[in-house]
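Let's practice the habit of predicting before peeking. Look at the sequence and jot down your guess about where helices and strands might fall. Then scroll down.
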Amino acid sequence: MRNNHEIDYKIFGEELQFVEIELDPGETVIGEPGGFMMMDDGIEMQTLFGDGSAASQQGGLLGKLMNAGRRVLVGENLFMTAFTNIGQGKRRVSFAAPYTGKIIPLDLQQLGGSIIAQKDAFLCAAKGVSIGIALQRRLGTGIFGGEGFIMEKLEGDGLAFVHAGGYIIEKTLQPGEILKVDTGCVVAFQPSVDFDIEFIRGIRNWMFGGEGLFFALMRGPGKVWLQSLPISRLASRIVQYGSGWGKRREEGSILGGLGNLLDGDGF
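Done guessing? Here is the structure:
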């Protein structure tokens, strides 16, 4: 038995996807402003202060302000939009990913009730899912971990949808199993996964290798979701080519390594 609304869905597309949510009468899905694509007649839209979860409505006006304010810290909007089926039969509402990549469905009930995700990853969820913040416990992880001190925390027992760039892979780490990842490629992980950073040993590795100075160190047990094309990496390439840097520095050169270090590419 779920406390959050129980919704059905279907994902369409390959590289530019959208998710169609099917709502029974009285069911509600919440979405980020700007993610809405289309909906059937008979669905009512309502602007919510915060995420609409029970936790976000506690503590009076001050409590609501604090809960909603947390979303601003992770790059999300202060308000969200709720879409409720007020008709008699099933109705559908769709949300589109903001850039090329994949939409990842997360059943929080099957994933232990909580997922930590990169900032700006959230797309939509069943009403009742809480979208809060997760603070990095280690100073080094917050400074060099690519996502900063604050990440997004999705809690509840309903369905939530996040989006990421390029190809998405889900990996299940066994207890003590370690995976080293480019910091920008981490999309989401279960709280049971220990997330840390590791300095790349050897000055030649980062000067001539074209990568950053740090790995994301993921230690199991738990699931992790990784993306092949972080939006920051894509944006960096577009800016470089659009500003007359069409002939990009060779990645294997000493200037390439130093340039990447200075402009933050690979951090």
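How did you do? Residues 139-148, 205-211, 248-255 have pLDDT under 50 and may be disordered.
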